[in-house]
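input
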Amino acid sequence: MELHTMDLYIKSLIKEAGHIIRNSFVTELVVEAKSNANDLVTNMDKEIEQFFISRIRRDFPGHRVFGEEGFGDVIESLEGTIWMLDPIDGTMNFVHQKSNFAISLGVYEDGIGKLGYIYDVVNDNLYHAVHGEGAYCNDERLMPLTETSLEKSIVGINATWVTPNRYIKHEDSIRLIQDVRGTRSYGSAALELAFVATGRIDAYLSMRLSPWDIAGGIIIAQEVGAIATNFKGEAANLLQQDSFIAANPSVHSKILNEYINLK
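output
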């Protein structure tokens, strides 16, 4: 299927999934813990992932799916066409707030991002991009990021990473939050990437994200000029969990070189 036809198909699929999620607000959720008490999954996370997979396998039988809830394929290489899906990114927000969560989807061909989507379900805002053709929020094209300085930047960072942890020296993270204009933490990597792409925040960083958290957002953010890497400055990891930063190009290297000190 040609990319633009596929793009229309995916947008329709995402909107249908969003409708299912909104309808669930009046039903009782089944909430479980995965790796720890704060790592939540609901019956809706599972249902939405299965909804996507059933459609993908019906209409794109040669494609593979890399999904958070484990109903897709075992992905050990980036060969072929892979849909990287987080059915509800920000599950804790979904459970507690019924807001600040998103459907995140990226479609990759041989490791190259072709189609990216972040759907803010509650606000009905669909951020999307076709590789090489710009990024959009609904029908409005997002403008290229403009130059800024660290002192004028708002940075997305979870408070965990400015307390003692096993990944980075938190003293340098403290300096970062002291030197920037402000910090935010929304609890959804996908939404934070959308906010980097729109210029609402100038950088987003996390010590531990999975491919499905970032796959769609990378494509969207790169279309407006953002740079996305791990903390070593390498291309973002699309096969396993890793550190991650997406930022306005005028502050990306400064944050990595002056404020990130890996243990």
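quick obs: The CA atoms of residues 26 and 98 lie 11 Å apart.
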